[in-house]
Amino acid sequence: MTVLFTVLSLSILATVLAAIVVLADYKLNDYGICKIDINNGARSLEVNGGSSLLSSLASQKIFIPSACGGKATCGLCKVTLVESVGPVLPTEEPFISEAEREAGVRLSCQVKVKQDLKIRIPDEFFNIKQYRTRVSEIKQLTHDIKQFRFQLLEPTTIDFKAGQYVQIDSKPYGKVTEAVSRAYSISSVPSENNIIELIIRLVPGGICTTFLHEHVNEGDEITFAGPFGDFYLHEGGDELIFIAGGSGLAPIRSLVLDILEKNLEKKMKFFFGAVRRRDLYYLDFFRELEEKYDNFTYIPALSGATPEDEWDGEQGLITDVVARHVPDAERRQAYLCGSPGMINACVQVLTKIGFSRDAIFFDEF
Amino acid sequence: MGSAPAISPLVIFLASIFSSNMVLSNFLGMCSFISVSSEYKTASGLGKAVALVMVFTTILNWLIYHYVMIPLGLDYLRYLIFIIVIAATVQIIEMVMDRYLSDLHMKLGIFLPLITVNCAILGISLFMVIRSYGFLQTLVFGLGSGLGWWLAIAALAAIREKMAGKELPRGLEGPALTFIITGLMALAFVGFSGMFVVM
Fold this sequence. Notes:
The structure holds two protein chains of two kinds.
Chain A: H1 2-28, E1 33-38, E2 43-48, H2 53-59, E3 78-81, H3 98-103, E4 105-107, E5 117-120, E6 129-140, E7 145-154, E8 165-169, E9 181-185, E10 195-201, H4 207-215, E11 221-228, E12 239-245, H5 249-261, E13 267-274, H6 283-292, E14 296-302, E15 314-315, H7 318-325, E16 332-337, H8 340-353, E17 360-362
Parallel strand pairs in A: 1-5, 12-13, 12-16, 13-14, 14-15, 16-17
Antiparallel strand pairs in A: 1-2, 3-4, 3-5, 6-7, 6-11, 7-10, 8-9, 8-11
Chain B: H1 9-17, H2 30-35, H3 40-72, H4 78-100, H5 102-108, H6 112-115, H7 119-130, H8 135-163, H9 175-190
Helix pairs in contact in B: 1-8, 3-4, 3-7, 3-8, 4-5, 4-7, 8-9
């Protein structure tokens, strides 16, 4: 009897309090309809106030890049508030530089929509959509790298620039209860606009790569948002130096194929760094391209080749190989994709050769 | 309620700030006291938020204790009920602040959810029951304890800020020295006892 009474009275009290909290949330969190003006009238939205700017924009199909999903830990979802609505919160401080603070930059996941807002975002963001896809092909490229092909279901086509990336949404699996979204560069060409291909290396302990490698099968439905990023072909540069390692080959493949397809008058040198023979993939593919096109050179290099690899190509660290083949920075641009360590080392070597910082491009993730 | 001890509210107020300081003499709310006290600004923000929540939750818990729990004979459930009430109150305070006191919310907002699990808050509610305080006594007890907690963490943070960058013996870096400072502060606060006695 006492037990029953205890449980009952506790439940009633908890219910009453929960009801009060819900009611308070309903009453207090109702800011009515708020207008969001984007890029000085380019788009104007009406949203129900009370949610974060990030999710309010997403509800209107405007996707701001965000890898953490609104927890203020990735610092990607930056937007500029033309009219300030309050100071930068302590949660945002690690991500906002002094110059950005002056310019009104905020993390959109930390700004709550309570009144009409005027914001500025890069024009590319309007092109970002959420895509529903079906995995149509999974290919094992090396012992730890797989290629995934996604058939777009809705929308059925995607408009992206070669070199850009998408954010795949993982689903909970096994002991992982959270769904995350992670960024991967597209390796297919923009002209094939009803599919995308991604090249993904299994990161031990990685939530999303483990999901893709071990829990996704051909025929499964997967969603992603995109395209994101400014790692695409930039003006200037008669000769393009591409340097990649591991799964960093993906955006370079897209860029090279796009340039060849469009017959752009550019010379290209593609350096691909790996440790052993077994880490090389798409070897024949790029060698065939090299034979077919005069303006494309492919230079794979192994840093740890052993006799059994029977390797007669370039050897050594990719930075040394690049230094041997690139005499100066005259009319050249460099596009890098790989681990942060590889990128740092390459930027150092390229700077030594004479490349200015604005002739070197890479994605920071 | 008629049995409330005849201690003057003023004495309770002063005692709960100084000689019976929640953190320095009862050692409640130590986790955030140690971890959020490296910067004065942040620490003071947390202190204010704790003070605010303490006042509201003690009053509310007093009312619920005397008008709901005692009549229904639910006294033995006070730990659970107090915690639920505290959690709900913090939620509502956060929403009200967000709506009407936007500036304050920007400064204190991120601390509010942390406070739900601050044991000093629950401690106050339990003390007021054990000491059978009346309404006015509870009110000043909550207010005084809140201000005391604020004073303590702000003082500790100010001291730690002054010490930042100073060379220390390796074993004393970080929390170690913070505990020693806390101990010294506690000694200083104990110096107030005898001026006001609260049981």
